[in-house]
Design a protein that fits this description.
By secondary structure, this protein is mostly helical. The protein has one domain. Helices cover 71% and strands 12% of the residues. The chain contains three helices and two strands; from the N terminus they run αααββ. α1 crosses α2 and α2 packs antiparallel against α3. The longest helix is centred in the middle third of the chain and has 29 residues. The C terminus is likely disordered. GO terms for molecular function: DNA binding.
């Protein structure tokens, strides 16, 4: 129960930080995308990996990168004063961004 509470607090702090400073999300997104690309290159260069496993891993990473892109778009809307209430999947957590009109 304590661990869940601390995880919830951490997610809230991350969401607040991202809403207030979108450069943090952009840096995270750039690093995550670079890492996902590196995994893709590595998976393509090794032999003996099942093709369906390779596709599942790369599909999952692609889904996570797309979620980060969606989150970045939503936080940009917040930056320009467009009110948003949005739930966005984040690779490490689920962030819920609430902004009152």
């Amino acid at each position: 129960m304590t661990v869940r509470h601390l995880q919830k607090l951490q997610r809230q702090q991350i969401a607040t930080t991202i809403v207030n400073d979108t450069t943090i999300l952009n840096k995270y997104r750039a690093g995550y995308s670079e890492c996902a690309n590196e995994v893709g290159r590595y998976m393509g260069s090794i032999d003996g990996v099942d093709q369906s496993l390779r596709q599942r891993i790369l599909g999952h990473l692609n889904h996570c990168v797309n979620s980060l892109n969606q989150m970045a778009n939503n936080t940009n809307n917040l930056q320009f004063g467009n009110p948003v209430t949005k739930t966005v999947a984040f690779p490490d957590a689920l962030l819920i961004l609430f902004v009152k009109q």
